[in-house]
């Protein structure tokens, strides 16, 4: 697997097997959950193997210059771009970063949770505890940096110095991994757009630019004076939309914080979503956890979906129907 296209077409299971062969002799594997590739630099890069699309990619459409990639099946840049980035950075690095490929991020971070549990039980190499920084490459766009519940200002300043801009998000694999390892983490853009839709596309130049920046970070992390960025839990604040003036937000002031590790997972909606809110709900999942949205629905009713959507994106305009197992060492 050398080209981006090689990472787009396999199913999750096929890609898992291919990566296991590529890194044979260098891995710790939990079948169907994660592949940990050993490195010699104290930095770990993370990406997930699954996509939201029901069908695997069979047709790849490209712009005339080859820069933009799409597929009728959904191109799966989330997160095959990240997987490709990890492999590319690793291959080019003099001192190799640790790599973590996870399964089933899109349905609750199951692979990341399995990794965290394996660490908790002492089943991972002791060198994992020497990591100084975690970087996930799983975010849409070209310059985003998302930290979730990690609040290490030194790390944020360092990542910003590399040309990234702090953005918001609700969940990714590092939401489990960072607090378990006690290491600060960031999720960076990987050059895909229109996530979770069949209109998803990849901008190859944007992806390559991120790869170059991450390669530089890996190089710097290999130096003896590179600091360890420790995980610090963020104090959560409830965002209040200007349209929420009539809502009683006391419910949220007393609401316990949902743990970032352990048995709690993203859940399916507790009740059917009215048809007029389905598209808005799906879009919001890029910004909020399902637990958050379901809590809002339980308290405020379904109309809160529209309120949340408007607070993030502005008024919603409906599209015209006629518009275009056990751990093993390898």
Mind explaining what this structure looks like?
The protein is an alpha/beta fold and 330 residues long. The protein folds into two domains: 4-221, Zn peptidases (Aminopeptidase), CATH 3.40.630.10; 243-313, no CATH class. The chain is 33% helix and 15% strand. It has helices spanning 4-8, 12-22, 77-92, 110-120, 153-160, 174-181, 204-221, 250-253, 278-284, 290-300, 303-313, and strands at 27-30, 34-37, 43-48, 61-62, 68-70, 98-102, 133-139, 144-146, 165-167, 185-189, 192-193, 201-203, 327-329. The strands form two sheets. A nine-stranded mixed β-sheet has the order 9-8-10-7-3-6-2-1-13, with helices on both faces. A hairpin with a 5-residue loop joins strand 4 (61-62) and strand 5 (68-70). Helix 3 (77-92) crosses helix 7 (204-221), helix 4 packs parallel to helix 6 and helix 9 (278-284) crosses helix 11 (303-313). The longest helix has 18 residues, at 204-221. The chain is globular.
Shape: globular
Distance between the termini: 19 Å
Q: Please, how many domains?
A: 2
CATH topology of the largest domain: Aminopeptidase
| Quaternary structure type | single chain
How much of the polypeptide forms β-strand, as a percent range?
15-25%
- Number of helical runs? 11
Q: Which architecture of the largest domain does the CATH hierarchy give at level 2?
A: 3-Layer(aba) Sandwich
Question: In what order do the strands lie side by side in the largest sheet?
Answer: 9-8-10-7-3-6-2-1-13
Main beta sheet strand tally, sense and closure: 9 strands, mixed
Task: Provide the structure class.
Answer: alpha/beta
List low-pLDDT spans. Answer: 238-242, 244-267, 319-324
The level 1 CATH classification of the largest domain is: Alpha Beta
Radius of gyration: 20 Å
CATH homologous superfamily descriptor of the largest domain: Zn peptidases
Helix content: 25-40%
Q: What string, H for helix and E for strand, traces the elements in order?
A: HHEEEEEHEHEEHEHEEEHHHHHE
Mean of residue pLDDT values? 86
Number of strands: 13
């Amino acid at each position: 697997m050398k080209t981006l296209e090689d990472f787009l077409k396999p199913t999750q299971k096929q890609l898992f097997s291919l990566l296991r062969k590529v890194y044979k002799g260098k891995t710790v594997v939990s079948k169907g959950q994660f592949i940990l590739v050993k490195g010699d630099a104290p930095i770990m890069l993370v990406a997930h193997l699954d996509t939201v699309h029901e069908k695997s990619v069979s047709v790849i459409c490209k712009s005339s210059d080859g820069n933009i990639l799409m597929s009728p099946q959904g191109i799966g840049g989330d997160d095959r771009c990240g997987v490709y980035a990890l492999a590319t950075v690793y291959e080019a690095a003099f001192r190799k970063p640790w790599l973590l490929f996870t399964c089933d991020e899109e349905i609750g971070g199951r692979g990341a949770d399995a990794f965290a549990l394996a660490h908790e039980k002492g089943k991972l190499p002791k060198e994992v505890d020497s990591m100084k920084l975690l970087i996930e490459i799983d975010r849409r766009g070209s310059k985003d940096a998302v930290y979730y519940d990690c609040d290490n200002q030194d790390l944020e300043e360092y990542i910003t110095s590399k040309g990234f801009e702090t953005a918001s998000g609700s969940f990714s694999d590092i939401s489990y991994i960072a607090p378990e390892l006690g290491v600060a983490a960031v999720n960076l853009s990987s050059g895909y757009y229109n996530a979770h839709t069949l209109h998803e596309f990849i901008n190859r130049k944007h992806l390559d630019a991120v790869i170059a920046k991450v390669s530089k970070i890996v190089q710097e992390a290999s130096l003896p004076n590179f600091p360890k960025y420790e995980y610090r839990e963020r104090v959560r604040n409830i965002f209040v939309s200007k349209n929420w003036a009539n809502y009683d937000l006391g419910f949220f002031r007393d609401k316990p914080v949902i743990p970032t590790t352990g048995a709690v997972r993203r859940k399916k909606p507790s009740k059917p979503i009215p048809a007029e809110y389905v598209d808005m709900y799906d879009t919001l999942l890029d910004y909020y956890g399902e637990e958050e949205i379901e809590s809002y629905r339980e308290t405020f009713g379904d109309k809160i979906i529209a309120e949340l959507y408007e607070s993030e994106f502005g008024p919603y305009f409906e599209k015209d129907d006629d518009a275009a197992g056990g751990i093993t060492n390898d």
